[in-house]
Specification:
Layout: E1 5-7, H1 11-17, E2 20-21, E3 27-28, E4 31-32, E5 44-47, E6 52-58, E7 74-81, E8 101-103, H2 111-118, E9 122-127, E10 129-136, E11 139-146, H3 150-161, E12 163-169, E13 172-179, E14 184-191, H4 192-195, H5 209-220, H6 227-231, E15 246-251, E16 260-265, E17 267-269, H7 272-275, E18 280-282, H8 287-297, H9 306-319, E19 327-336, E20 345-354, H10 357-360, E21 365-367, H11 373-380, H12 387-390, E22 401-404, H13 432-446
Parallel strand pairs: 4-7, 7-20, 8-20
Antiparallel strand pairs: 1-5, 1-10, 2-3, 6-7, 6-9, 9-19, 10-11, 11-22, 12-13, 13-14, 15-16, 17-18, 19-20, 20-21
Helix pairs in contact: 8-9
């Protein structure tokens, strides 16, 4: 089952995270398409059904509300979580049964899902991860489940597919490379004198003298020097400015005089390096974080989404703004059209399967996760890949990580970064009464008597 997710990236970061190998060759990012009817996607650490969240669809799906042509094979299209069948009568807000999840075992039997699947309406639901609750006697403990970091996955794939061994035999270095997937072993013998104790040839006679000099300069350019003064040695060189996150406001006078623009620097707890000087420091912004921050700063902040906007900004500072590996869940979508000509409602359901052994420790159901770009492509390409073949990718997987989180996620109104932060289950849970007692005890330790020891009241036996 999947009843709550987290999706905290801005639209451009989502598109960047979902780049794929196009048919024309090379990597391509999907194009973002806003949902019809003025609906908005708001990044959040706690997304409940009914919200609009990003999903990937093939660009051949058109709904008659698009403003411009799509130049990519895939489109990121936010849709409402909770499928509304195209044949539903009445208000789209009054579907008499839950459609947040679609059981894979019966999706080809129930008309709610069978009809859109036969029409090729397959999608991939994007999220940082999803929440699930483990029942332990009378208590439910929430867990956050997500994909391993892409770096860890790449390293694991590299280590499993390629093993290099280096040994010496009579002054000759033998390098063996084995592909564990194909069982192929390649050996290369290199004379140690030619090798020069390095992976690169020591003989530079074939190189251009200017190239040799350049290699030496690259090795010694910042060797033991102060980088700040190194950058200014040349005189007049452009220095690297520090970019600090800030918040600004505009004050306007009633007499019509020019407005006053002012700002404040946002600070965070210091890094270990800065902690030697002070416990606080400005939050520095690097280039790839700027677009995410600027998107959040231009979100429409209405009364009902003010907390969501604030949560996004806090989430950006807490997470560092790094592009993360998004979880890709198989889904089915449908298009509901009103009889009065109003914009259509795009909605989806997450396909679920029986849990893998790793997930079974928490819950008996889990989303159908698509692990590779090939699996994603086969699920999206309904024009060329028949449903009978695509459903072979609908299965449980062990490629997940999880950690327990605070029960503040139980309330969907709580959207702070604390919803996804790991907690230690071995530590006793704090309560308002225990917090008050600890505060009172700590206060008592600070308020020590100034009277001489002889005049103090003895409360303990000597």
């Amino acid at each position: 089952m999947c009843g709550r997710t987290a999706c905290t990236l801005a639209p451009d970061e989502i598109c960047r995270s979902c780049s794929y190998s196009s048919h024309s060759g090379g990597r391509q990012e999907p194009q973002w398409r806003d949902p019809p009817g003025g609906q908005k996607y708001y990044p959040s650490h706690n997304v409940a059904p009914g919200a609009h969240t990003p999903v990937i669809i093939s660009s051949h799906h058109r709904f008659g509300t698009e403003d411009d042509a799509v130049s990519t094979e895939r489109v990121v299209q936010p849709m409402q979580w909770g499928l509304i069948p195209s044949w539903h009568k009445g208000s789209p807000k009054k579907v008499s049964y839950e459609t947040n999840n679609c059981r894979s075992e019966s999706m080809l039997e129930k008309p709610t899902y069978k009809v859109p699947l036969q029409r090729g309406r397959r999608c991939v639901v994007l999220a940082d991860g999803f929440f699930e609750w483990k029942r332990d006697q009378a208590k439910k403990q929430p867990y956050f489940i997500y994909f391993p970091d892409k770096k860890d996955t790449d390293e694991r794939e590299t280590n499993s597919s390629c093993l290099k061994v280096k040994k010496e035999e009579n002054g000759v270095s033998v390098k063996s490379e084995r592909d564990s997937n194909l069982g192929i072993v390649k050996e290369e013998k290199v004379n140690l004198e030619q090798e020069g104790g390095s992976e690169c040839p020591a003989d530079t006679s074939s190189l251009n003298p200017a190239d040799v000099l350049l290699k030496k300069e690259i090795k010694t350019e910042f060797n033991g020097t102060d980088k700040y003064h190194q950058a200014h040695k040349g005189g007049g060189e452009t220095k690297r400015l520090m970019t600090m996150a800030g918040v600004f406001d505009v004050w306007k006078s009633s007499d019509g005089s020019p407005p006053v623009l002012s700002y404040s620097v946002i600070t965070v707890e210091s890094s270990p390096a800065m902690m030697k000087v002070h416990h606080r420091m400005p939050f520095k912004i690097i280039n790839k974080r700027c677009s995410q921050l600027l998107y959040w700063s231009t979100c429409e902040v209405a009364a009902d989404v003010g907390q969501t906007f604030l949560t996004c900004v806090l989430s950006f500072f807490a997470g560092g703004g790094e592009t993360k590996r998004l979880m890709t869940m198989a889904g089915v979508f449908d298009v509901w059209k009103s009889s009065d000509g109003s914009p259509p409602v795009l909605s989806y359901s997450v396909i679920t399967v029986e849990s893998s052994p790793a997930m079974m420790k928490v819950h008996h159901r889990m989303p159908a996760l698509l692990l590779t770009d090939k699996e994603v492509q086969e699920w999206l390409d309904s024009e060329n890949v028949p449903l009978e073949k695509a459903v072979k990718n609908i299965r449980a997987t062990e490629e997940i990580q999880m950690h327990p989180v605070s029960d503040i996620v139980n309330n969907s109104r709580n959207k702070s970064p604390d919803c996804t932060k790991p907690i230690d289950l071995t530590k006793p849970k704090s309560t308002p009464s225990s917090n008050l007692m600890m505060k009172w005890l700590s206060k008592g330790k600070k308020e020590q008597s100034n009277e001489p020891p002889s005049k103090r009241i003895k409360t303990e036996p000597q």
